[in-house]
Records
---
Amino acid sequence: MKPQSLKPSKPEERKHYVPRSKPLMDHLVSPETRHKLHCLKNHLTQVELQAKKKAEKQAAEDDKIIRQYLTDHGLTATKTSTGLYYIIETQGTGPSCISTSDVKVAYKGYFTDGSVFDQSSAAGITFNLQGVIAGWTEGIPFFKEGWLS
């Protein structure tokens, strides 16, 4: 038996047939548009690389500031693989939580110059750890209920 051709045999089917020797985009987009898309892709790649380099540089500067702050204040912190620093002055005796837990936290956030940038009431605030910044989602589970930092 003779193998059947993949190419359509009827004229009305042929007008929709696109041979697959070239990528489909080559048949649907003009050479000028392909060139513009290629240039745009290269530009976006460069922008992404620049942003990544800038973020890495900022992270290194931030890490230096944090290490200097710790040294200046005689503090010893633990640093995670993601770059999160934390200090447990008094570990709690209650249960631990996980990154998806609802927790109640009384907190005060400081800049390295000592000024407060945010704080809860003394009674604390309740939230799910999936709805907060990544540092809280990662860091809060290190502490047991009743901890002080």
---
Amino acid sequence: MSVWTLCVRPRFQLFVRPPFGSFKIAEAWSCSNNRSGGCVHCSVVSRKKIILALLALLALGGLSLYLNRDSFSRQAIQISHRVSPWLAQAPRGRRPVSESTGNPVTFSFDRYYRFNRIRVFVASEIETNKYAHPLWDLTSESNSVPTGSFGYGSYLRGMHPAVKNARPDPLEPGVKYRLVVTVGDQEGRHDFSTTPKRPLAAR
């Protein structure tokens, strides 16, 4: 363990002697006689210089916190969406997931998240009623898989409907919806809408 030695030299200058050398930090002065008649050197440091040193340390600490502010603050969950008409065509031999009149919507995120809950509301309802009924509601206790994108109504590994066997309601074109995702104690929101499906060409 390193030991720092504080010493006062005859010229009344205060030095600090670390293990690797010594350097002066302030002037020291005054001398008084003790009972035995000897002289005692007092390490009286200038108050002004102490204040300046403390201010310099505070300035450096503030600069360090500012430069590393991103490490201490949480970044908001960034969400975007894309209307994907080409996903509306169901694979051969399969029926569409829902009878929605709107095109499918895909959501993308700035990074992968372990979602605790995913909900979609009609925006006008959630703005006036915090207990609005979600059109789509998935939840996870602890084992959701990191996900960077998903489609409305799709299956996500490690998540399940909040109400057993519940299915997502179909999206309608021209209606403003709101996606609300929860990751730990963070919450992200994103408004979106979809467009009308084009009728399938006759074969």
---
Amino acid sequence: MIDTNYITQIQFHKNNGTSKKQCGELLGLSYNTVRKYWDMEGIPQSKVTNQKEIEFINRWSNESNDIDETYSYVLGLYLSNGYIATHKYTKRFRLSQNIKYQNIIQEHINALQRLFNKQPNIVYPKNTNAVDIVVGSRDLDFLFPQGTIEGPKNKHPIILEQWQHRIISKYPKQFIRGMMQTDGCRFLNKNSVRYSFSNASKDICNIMTEICDQEELSYSIYEGQTNPSALYTIQFKCASNDYLEQVVGGKS
């Protein structure tokens, strides 16, 4: 069976009027593969077929809560502003941050080091005010299955696995902190501190609002009205300020 994210993509293109041939060309799949999953109802649950993944899952479930907390935070970073880069011998997790936020950058580095048990590399792209934090791992396809499909995250469906939902539901503050540190904004509005979150992916914004609903945060959603570079913006209401000040705070 192909990766479930490809099955999601096939059904996405089918519902948007793409032909089987065009779908195969877009996804790099054969016509017969597309035809096999074209009329499938629903998405089958992922099956672990690799012994290494079985061992990884066992280690994951037996680790201390710190690992789950760290993963919830890093998943927030990945969904909002991270991506998986494919290189010749391995894949790499890459995250960009504004160079002026040194405390946040160090928090990113510490979290990635805990999660992958190795020191991330720091890259300074030329002629930018950004810093890239990069770490390679053979476990990236398992940790972030949404990254198995190449291209911008707003160009294909983003659906979390059940175990990912379990972790962010258990550690929502860490997830919200990761999301807000990358695609979030803290600003003054009529002498009152306000927060917002913007992203080009509707699916990612929906995941964010699901966790916000769990935490009983108040917000409004705007499509393409407040941030020209993002299609969707979550504007938090003043009632959510105390929570967000405690969990997110200002950027530094």
---
Amino acid sequence: MRTTPLRILLIDDSEADRAAMRRALESAECEWIIDEAVDGASGIAAYRRADYDCVLLDFLLPDSNGLKILRRMVEHSDELSAPVVMMTAHGDEQVAVDAMKAGALNYVIKGPAAFERIAHTIRGAAREWRHIEARREAEATSRALNVELERRVSQRTQELATTVEELEAFCYAVSHDLRAPLRAVDGFAEILSEHLGADNGGGPEARECIHRVQDATSRMSTMIDGLLGISRLRRAEMAFEPVDLADLARRIVEDFRSTDKARHVEVDTGSIPPTRGDPGLLSVVLQNLIENAWKFTTNAEQARIEIGHTGGGDPTETVYYVRDNGRGFDPSQSDRLFAAFQRLENATGIDGSGIGLAMAKRAVSLHGGRIWADSAPNEGTTFYFTLPCRNA
């Protein structure tokens, strides 16, 4: 319970009304400090000098009216520092509405009944004002926290963008800088191989060592190409335009057939709906997924690859897939599937650098899509990827 007195500012030009309210307050079970003003100017001056628990403001004063005084009270702070109860001798509904709009917390009609209840009115206004101030403080704290959060997010975003740019620049520079010494190693290995091949000794063991060096430089060169490929993807500017995915898939398959004529692979490109996207990036997606299916069906009795789409529950995206009947993989290893330079245990004997699926994931992500795989050992693999629906 409050023990300190409530401080009241009473602005009223009627001595009789002020006296009636003083008597009513003195008879109430509460301690009061009452400051009085008889016009608007002195009332505003008193309001600005002290902190009040409640302001009783007469609507009609010799030098102004209650609405104008309310507006002047908030000139310097944009909000009232205490609850204001507007008082008038006449019951005017429009005055009440205007007073509440201007910031008054309550409105009473002067008279014996109102004066008898004035202590109750003041205590109610002071209690409600404390709730309002608590809410304002909470809102101000929330706004300050939001501003700080936005500042931190912006700072972290900028730091992350800078870090990514630096990593990409480093990756690009290192990839280029590695090429020269790698070419030198491969070149000297080739010279040494020719020298040993000219009956200059060394034997098969030495030639095997040289072959391993050349094989290692070849793998390193492939990895460098992969690094450069990812770097280019990250810096690529996307150009959205209509893309015929069915035609794109058929052309990629024909390229594989022309370079691997010894194999017979059944490929079904069925019904693949067109889309809108970046042709180069979408080519990266299909190229790597079809290449993966082509390589992992090498030992299949009758290799089969199917490229198509499925109906999904989300009308905002289309789900495409590339399915094969190859060797499949253990689903427990799926977290490594799209990581750069990560190869699964079942990839033994399959050429590759472990970069193709990482590039496919990046290209899909740049379109705002997702990519995942469903597989089991010796039961084939289905790669799914989504693209947002855009008018093609």
